[in-house]
Amino acid sequence: MAHVLPAVAVTPAIAEASKRKSRVAYFLLIPGLAWLAIFFVVPLVTLFMTSLQTESVTSPGKYVPGLQLSNYTDALAEYWPQFLRSFLYAGLATGFALLIAYPLAYFIAFKAGNWRSLMLVLVVAPSFASFLLRTYAWKTILADDGPVTSTLNSLHLLPDGRILNTGIAVVAGLTYNFLPFMVLPLYASLDKIDYRLIEAGNDLYGSPQQVFRKVTWPLSLPGVVAGTLLTFIPAAGDFINAELLGSTKDKMIGNVIQTNFIEFRDYPTASALSFALMTVILVMVLSYIRRSGTEDLV
Amino acid sequence: MPEGVSRIVEDLRLANLTKQFGETKAVDNLSITIPAGSFFALLGASGCGKTTTLRMVAGLEDPSAGQVFIGDKDITELRAFQRPVNTVFQSYALFPHLDIYENVAFGLRRRGVKDVDAQVGRMLELVELASLARRKPSQLSGGQQQRVAVARALINKPDVLLLDEPLGALDLKLRRQMQIELKRIQSEVGTTFVHVTHDQEEAMTMADTVAVMNAGRIEQLGHPADVYETPHTIFVANFLGQSNLIAGKKVTSGEIVEVAAFGLGFKMPASRNVAPGMNIVVGVRPEKITVLDLHDEDKLPAAHNRIFGVVTDVSYTGVSTQYLVETPWGQTIIAFEQNSIVGDRCAVGDQVVLGWAPEHTFGLDPAEGLTSGLDKAVVELESDPEA
Amino acid sequence: MRWIRQNVIGAIAILVLLYLFLPIAVVIIFSFNNPVGKYNLSWNEFSLDAWSQICGVPGVCSSFVTSIQIGLITTTFATILGTLIAFALVRYRFRGRSSTNLLIFMPMATPEIVMGSSLLALFLNLSFPLGAVTIMIAHIMFIISFVVVAVKARLQGMDPRLEEAARDLYASPYATFRYVTFPLVLPGIIGAALLGFSLSFDDFIISFFNAGTLVTFPIYIWGAAQRGIPPQVNALASLVFMSALLIVLSAQLVAWRKRRSLATR
């Protein structure tokens, strides 16, 4: 789709001159930003307010505005295992995804030649089939009498003798589902590396491992940061994998929020958990971005 | 602009044109008149303000102060699309989504001109691209794209055609060819061409007037040969071609000025000296110098200026031979010799005499420093004794 | 040994791709299954029933159509709003640029469950009836950011000299936009719209919170997962997958052909 543009260095002066200061900008911005303000920011405020509501004295089961901070402590006291498990599973899935996405992205960026764009299509293509159905398909693949489980069992690699309805299946599902979000940013930043830099590393007596550690890896860090965030954030909030592939012992915080909101209608507890989840993720993301020195990502 | 009416082409005049980017003055109080129908080259290193000047004429940049006139008409306040000025952009900026025909027709269509087809046909003939009308720009070679860019601008019969480093993206051979081509087109259409380039050879080959620009100001303006033969500043002497410069003191004034330096005397006609005071920098172009073995000194005409030294390097470059000669005071003089002499050339280590005519000597004001106009990196490298 | 070292990355890459496609293969294969009982989880026998009677199970096709309708409306709005923002960000100088960037980045850094539940909290507090409208509101909200990012990238990749050339060639600001800027950005906008549609069509978590009693295709699958997913769902999903793949691959083929014809000239 990309047009062939002549490779020219656009001087900042020209780029700036083409930018006009104008009130037109606000007309362009207002509709979209208003939408985001009303349906993203306001709901977050509402969520926070709901998380502080108290149960009505006159009509139990109804909630009225309040400042019930104990909603947070109560919710966390009850659901901290699910909270921790969410971050553990999401962290494991992110690690595994990075581990298998890196060789794939590296291959596409440097070795695929004419197959490059086809391989990129193949990375995205699984997303064209329903997320839920693909996750459901892992039920078939990992079934207790299926080939995967029986092979691993004959090698005595499975502590429970099964994969389905264990944490392993949930992590495997999470890894699978968000893998493309890891591959694409990795590919994008690897693709920007001038391959001659790697060749120069080899030429200057770097062993393949040293060249990777000192040249390739540092240059691909923006992709690593973006990829891990894009994998970790949705994985930590996911409840589909735990619901379809795990047992009741493998529930994540998403499941808890979902059931409290939609089944128990315990809005304050669900809101408190949801808000806490967002806060924790936000703090993690910001400190992670700051530490890896890629603030310009935002 | 009405079609088919031959317009009187008018001069382009810049009056006190200034452009300030923050603290720096990219263009500093520039006032020049570019005669109608001339081929004018603005020559300078990157960042000297030549492109900014061009963009202000085109209307793509608003001047901080000053005016742009075409004839008597002040066009300073006109927007780019209202000016009778067209640009051939650096790297061409051809519309990638339109074919060659539509690229060339673009300006006509925007102005609602009637006989687009005939005009585009004629213009594509002029630049010899009629057979490629339906190709996309990306399917053309660099030289062909360049001609499309010229055609796209010229078809609008502008009063002034601006060319921003139009040949910069081409390889050397193609550049030579396009230089001749552009000159042919210019003489055919008679439009004023203002050509911005950092390539001195290109500027000198193509233009009837060259303006050497430095730090937002014009250092010298004139016919290419005059500017080259009689540079008025050290910057021009160093930037346009190469020069040997020797700092000295004036001994005699009058018809012939004599300058003493390092125990030697150098003469030049007073008309070739622009230094106002007693301190004069004596300059000579390398190809004006004759290199002779010390024993053959008597072959030099008596009136010639001369320097003695030792050859430190000889490079054969085909057309000529380049000598580097070290003087007793440690300066390196560069001299070119046509490879037309019969017999032995001087070799490294030879004691030689360098001679040249007083009429080839020029005198400059030393105020700006002897390295003005030289590549900074080269200056540092040469002044570093370790290198 | 040398051969292994040189090809180990390629081998891993192919294995990872196979891993990505394994569930897809299962989805497609099981659309031809004639399941025993309710659960379409283990292979019984080959059957074309799901394909010949693709709407044979009540609710499947109506939920599918609902998702397509929601996707189309959502994409239209989100693409327009996001494109306008992208233009403002790339082409204009204005106060509040960094807060604008933050507001656009935030939805992408927020788990879907937080966005879904917070919108539900808003709608509940306002007693706003849940249904197609609330789903579309939610989808437009989270898709805008993706559109902004995609269109912005395209705009930034555009040589500003092209627009200058247009102005230089007597194009008014409107004509410059109409004949140069817009046609050049259009591929980016179309790409953003396709991405937006696929995000909307496949979204479950946010929709689930704000659907009320409305059933989209993913919500249908979620419900069916508890009581057994009929093979018709597999057939429909396979259909979507294959047509999307076909569209993308043919676009790739056209681009590849174009490049090749350039290279041979």
TrEMBL record, chain A:
<keyword id="KW-0812">Transmembrane</keyword>
<feature type="transmembrane region" description="Helical">
    <location>
        <begin position="270"/>
        <end position="289"/>
    </location>
</feature>
<dbReference type="GO" id="GO:0055085">
    <property type="term" value="P:transmembrane transport"/>
</dbReference>
<keyword id="KW-1133">Transmembrane helix</keyword>
<feature type="transmembrane region" description="Helical">
    <location>
        <begin position="215"/>
        <end position="236"/>
    </location>
</feature>
<keyword id="KW-1003">Cell membrane</keyword>
<keyword id="KW-0813">Transport</keyword>
<feature type="domain" description="ABC transmembrane type-1">
    <location>
        <begin position="83"/>
        <end position="290"/>
    </location>
</feature>
<protein>
    <submittedName>
        <fullName>Unannotated protein</fullName>
    </submittedName>
</protein>
<feature type="transmembrane region" description="Helical">
    <location>
        <begin position="24"/>
        <end position="49"/>
    </location>
</feature>
<dbReference type="GO" id="GO:0005886">
    <property type="term" value="C:plasma membrane"/>
</dbReference>
<feature type="transmembrane region" description="Helical">
    <location>
        <begin position="163"/>
        <end position="188"/>
    </location>
</feature>
<comment type="similarity">
    <text>Belongs to the binding-protein-dependent transport system permease family. CysTW subfamily.</text>
</comment>
<feature type="transmembrane region" description="Helical">
    <location>
        <begin position="87"/>
        <end position="110"/>
    </location>
</feature>
<keyword id="KW-0472">Membrane</keyword>
Automatic annotation (TrEMBL), chain B:
<dbReference type="InterPro" id="IPR027417">
    <property type="entry name" value="P-loop_NTPase"/>
</dbReference>
<feature type="domain" description="ABC transporter">
    <location>
        <begin position="12"/>
        <end position="240"/>
    </location>
</feature>
<dbReference type="GO" id="GO:0043190">
    <property type="term" value="C:ATP-binding cassette (ABC) transporter complex"/>
</dbReference>
<dbReference type="InterPro" id="IPR003439">
    <property type="entry name" value="ABC_transporter-like_ATP-bd"/>
</dbReference>
<dbReference type="InterPro" id="IPR008995">
    <property type="entry name" value="Mo/tungstate-bd_C_term_dom"/>
</dbReference>
<keyword id="KW-0067">ATP-binding</keyword>
<keyword id="KW-0547">Nucleotide-binding</keyword>
<dbReference type="InterPro" id="IPR017871">
    <property type="entry name" value="ABC_transporter-like_CS"/>
</dbReference>
<dbReference type="GO" id="GO:0005524">
    <property type="term" value="F:ATP binding"/>
</dbReference>
<dbReference type="InterPro" id="IPR050093">
    <property type="entry name" value="ABC_SmlMolc_Importer"/>
</dbReference>
<dbReference type="GO" id="GO:0016887">
    <property type="term" value="F:ATP hydrolysis activity"/>
</dbReference>
<dbReference type="GO" id="GO:0022857">
    <property type="term" value="F:transmembrane transporter activity"/>
</dbReference>
<dbReference type="Pfam" id="PF08402">
    <property type="entry name" value="TOBE_2"/>
</dbReference>
<dbReference type="InterPro" id="IPR013611">
    <property type="entry name" value="Transp-assoc_OB_typ2"/>
</dbReference>
<keyword id="KW-0813">Transport</keyword>
Automatic annotation (TrEMBL), chain C:
<keyword id="KW-0812">Transmembrane</keyword>
<keyword id="KW-0813">Transport</keyword>
<feature type="transmembrane region" description="Helical">
    <location>
        <begin position="12"/>
        <end position="32"/>
    </location>
</feature>
<dbReference type="GO" id="GO:0005886">
    <property type="term" value="C:plasma membrane"/>
</dbReference>
<feature type="domain" description="ABC transmembrane type-1">
    <location>
        <begin position="64"/>
        <end position="251"/>
    </location>
</feature>
<keyword id="KW-1133">Transmembrane helix</keyword>
<dbReference type="Pfam" id="PF00528">
    <property type="entry name" value="BPD_transp_1"/>
</dbReference>
<feature type="transmembrane region" description="Helical">
    <location>
        <begin position="130"/>
        <end position="151"/>
    </location>
</feature>
<feature type="transmembrane region" description="Helical">
    <location>
        <begin position="204"/>
        <end position="223"/>
    </location>
</feature>
<dbReference type="InterPro" id="IPR035906">
    <property type="entry name" value="MetI-like_sf"/>
</dbReference>
<feature type="transmembrane region" description="Helical">
    <location>
        <begin position="235"/>
        <end position="256"/>
    </location>
</feature>
<comment type="similarity">
    <text>Belongs to the binding-protein-dependent transport system permease family. CysTW subfamily.</text>
</comment>
<feature type="transmembrane region" description="Helical">
    <location>
        <begin position="102"/>
        <end position="124"/>
    </location>
</feature>
<keyword id="KW-1003">Cell membrane</keyword>
<feature type="transmembrane region" description="Helical">
    <location>
        <begin position="177"/>
        <end position="198"/>
    </location>
</feature>
